[in-house]
Every structure is written in structure tokens, then in C-alpha cells.
Design brief:
Layout: H1 3-38, E1 50-55, H2 63-71, E2 78-84, H3 90-101, E3 107-111, H4 120-128, E4 136-139, E5 144-145, H5 150-158, E6 163-168, E7 171-174, H6 178-200, E8 212-215, H7 216-221, H8 234-244, E9 248-252, E10 257-260, H9 265-282, H10 284-289, H11 295-309, H12 313-338, H13 348-361, E11 367-370, E12 373-377, E13 383-385
Parallel strand pairs: 1-2, 1-4, 2-3, 6-9, 7-10
Antiparallel strand pairs: 4-8, 5-10, 6-8, 11-12, 12-13
Helix pairs in contact: 1-6, 1-11, 1-12, 2-3, 9-13, 11-12
Length: 390
């Protein structure tokens, strides 16, 4: 056997092995999601006043609808604090209109361009804290959409003994367009199942920007939001600090929707590469191991290369069929149990192939693009703004 043939055979067998492990992983992921979804949603014993923190930047897709959902909560006392960096930010105009439409809602708008660190979102939140009234704080991203029972689920989780922070996994709700659909599918059929498996296997509990709930005492004990003002993964860093302080992070059995608006392939790629490099910084070995969560592209590669290397066709085809069926089975299960938007079958392979490409690209470089600004990320996840030649 020539050197080339040996290399092709070894590589084909590696791809086939990844595809086989990945197929089994899809079944494990379905079980993990089922277990997470089946948890009963607790009811809070008390319903203390809550300040909802909403950092904003620009007129995002369905921003008015998203903000209104936080003003329509079935909860006694809430304050919504919205923050922008500039008075003329389009999001500020939306908040002002919302206050006119909902005069009985307690809505505060903070416009301050004082910069704290390199993470613009966290800097915004630090400025917003001057308007926060209540002890219990719930920070969430601007693209989140919730139903009226959202806060009851979060507050009930905060009442559990030893819990210092409550967070939520989330579903992707795509804006019109194929790139938005592909982006939402990455959240619904890769990120959410992967996080569910990690929890099932006893991995470190993550903290997600969909919801970060904590009281002021816990926040002060970890150094306030100032402690993560330079971190790319500010949500992960907050959860890590809370756990280091001896408190637990609870994952709420509630799944808000995050609006995914990706107008172009470039926007989708830059967004997902930032996410990927964020995860790589927080858990590099786990992120590298996530290669087995994408069985379909490796089954296709195994078939293509294995046929050249002379591997048995029946075996290669059975691996491909297994990968397809297991992957499709997970998608169907998540769609039915959680109401996640379905993905057209012909987009499944491109979606997973893009995930593999981004996984590889995440290890080759430390640059990220965030709201039209370019940053570099160091080995501990700290952000620094890129300059010409840097």
C-alpha cells in the first residue's frame, strides 16, 4: 500500500469513527433534552419586586415586540431599565414610544456614553445600574422574547437553596431569510442539545445571556458587573464568579426565544465565529471534542474518501444512513417537544458543514467582530479593540 493510500485509509476510517460516535451522540442529546424539558416548572413561594435590565444598541428586528413582552409579564412589580450609549440611538426612540404606549409600566431609559472596559454591553449595564430600583436583578439580551410566566419560572429557581444565579437556555426564532433560518437551526439543533448533554453528564453549569438573574448581594460579592467589563464571554464569566463564591447556578426549565436576524452569509459567519471563539476560550477541550456532534458531514467525507481508499461500500452507506437518520431524529424531537422552527431537510447538511468549518476556524485566530467593531481576544477571554496593524 502506497503512502497516499495508507493516509487516505486512515483518514477515511477516522471520519467514519467520528460519524458513528456522532450518531450515538444524537440519541444521547435527544434523551438529555427530554430530561431537561420534562422537569416541572416550579412556582415561586414569594414574588419580590424585580428590575429587568435590557442593554440596547440599534433598531434590531422585532425590538418593539421583544420589549413589550417584558412589559406584559404576569408578575406584581417589575421595573424595566433600558440602556443605550447615545441619546440618538434608534433603540432609545423605540423605548420612548413604548413609554407613551404603556403609561402604567415602570420603564426607565438610561443614555450614557461613559465607557467601562472593552465590553460595550457590560459597560452599558454598569451605566444602567444607577436607575435600578429593586434588589432582584434580571439581565437579558435585547433579542429575547418571553411569555407572561417567564419571571415566575426565574424567581422560583432563585428560591432554591444555595442558588446564587439563575439562567435559561433558549430557542432561536428566525427572521425571514435562509441565513436566519440556518442561524436559528444552529441554536436549536446544536447549541441547546449540547448544553443539555453537558448538564446531563455533570459538566460545569453554563450561564447564558438569555437570562442572568441574581440579587444585589451576590452581585456585590463577585465584584459587580465591573468584574467582567473586559470579558468577551461576560455571561460565562458571571456564572463562573458566582460558582467560585460558593453559590450555584440554576438552569431554569423555561426556554425564551431569541430572534435571529442574519441578512447575509457574512453576517452569519462573523456572528457564529464570535460565539465559537467565545466557547473555545471558556472550554477549549470540550469545544474541540464537540467535533463528534456533527456526524453528517463526516459521514459524507468518510463515504467520499473511503470509496477511494477501498473501504466496503455497504459499511460506508450504512454509516451515512445512520448519521442522517439520527441527526434528523434529533431535529424532529426538538421541534416537537420545544416548538423549535423546523429546518428544511436540504439545509441540514449545509448547516452542519458550516458548523464544522466554524469549529476549525475558531482555533485559527483570536479576532472577533461585534456590532461592527473588531476586537482581539486573549487567552483568558479578555477583549482589546483592534487597531490598524494589530
Amino acid at each position: 500500500m502506497s503512502g497516499y493510500s495508507l493516509f487516505a485509509t486512515v483518514l477515511a476510517e477516522l471520519f467514519v469513527a467520528i460519524a458513528v460516535m456522532g450518531s450515538a451522540y444524537q440519541l444521547l442529546a435527544a434523551f438529555a433534552v427530554r430530561r431537561l424539558v420534562s422537569r416541572p416548572r416550579p412556582i415561586p413561594r414569594e414574588r419580590p419586586p424585580v428590575t429587568l435590565l435590557k442593554p440596547l444598541c440599534g433598531d434590531e428586528w422585532e425590538l418593539t415586540r421583544n420589549l413589550k413582552s417584558f412589559c406584559a409579564l404576569d408578575y406584581p412589580v417589575t421595573q424595566l431599565v433600558c440602556g443605550v450609549r447615545q441619546e440618538d440611538d434608534p433603540a432609545a426612540a423605540i423605548v420612548r414610544t413604548l413609554r407613551q404606549q404603556l403609561p402604567d409600566a415602570d420603564i426607565a431609559l438610561v443614555a450614557a456614553d461613559v465607557q467601562h472596559g472593552t465590553n460595550n454591553k457590560v459597560s452599558n449595564v454598569i451605566n444602567m445600574m444607577s436607575a435600578a430600583k429593586h434588589d432582584l436583578l434580571v439581565l437579558s439580551d435585547s433579542d429575547m422574547l418571553v411569555d407572561p410566566h417567564y419571571l415566575d419560572a426565574v424567581v422560583a429557581a432563585m428560591e432554591q437553596p444555595g442558588v446564587g444565579l439563575a439562567t435559561c437556555l433558549y430557542l432561536g426564532a428566525p427572521a425571514p431569510g435562509v441565513w436566519s433560518a440556518i442561524g436559528a437551526a444552529g441554536i436549536n439543533f446544536w447549541f441547546l442539545p449540547s448544553a443539555s448533554v453537558s448538564k446531563l453528564l455533570g459538566g460545569k453549569t453554563g450561564c447564558y445571556g438569555a437570562t442572568i438573574a441574581m440579587n444585589r448581594k451576590t452581585l456585590a460579592a463577585i465584584g459587580g458587573f465591573e468584574a467582567v467589563k473586559n470579558q468577551l464571554a461576560d455571561d460565562y464569566a458571571l456564572g463562573d464568579l458566582v460558582q467560585r463564591s460558593g453559590r450555584q447556578v440554576a438552569v431554569v426549565p423555561y426556554f425564551p426565544a431569541t430572534v435571529i436576524d442574519e441578512p447575509t452569509f457574512g453576517a452569519l459567519y462573523r456572528h457564529e465565529l464570535r460565539w465559537a471563539r467565545t466557547i473555545r476560550n471558556t472550554a477549549p477541550w470540550g469545544f474541540a471534542g464537540s467535533i463528534i456532534t456533527h456526524p453528517l458531514p463526516f459521514a459524507v467525507l468518510g463515504l467520499a474518501l473511503g470509496s477511494v481508499a477501498g473501504l466496503p461500500w455497504p459499511m460506508l452507506l450504512s454509516v451515512l444512513a445512520s448519521a442522517w437518520l439520527c441527526r434528523l431524529g434529533l431535529l424532529t424531537f426538538v421541534s416537537r417537544r420545544l416548538g423549535a422552527p423546523k429546518l428544511h431537510w436540504w439545509l441540514l447538511l449545509p448547516r452542519d458543514a458550516l458548523s464544522v468549518a466554524i469549529l476549525v476556524a475558531a482555533f485559527f485566530g483570536r479576532s472577533v467582530s461585534w456590532r461592527s467593531s473588531a476586537f482581539r481576544v486573549d487567552k483568558v477571554g479578555a477583549l482589546s479593540r483592534k487597531t490598524n496593524g494589530n
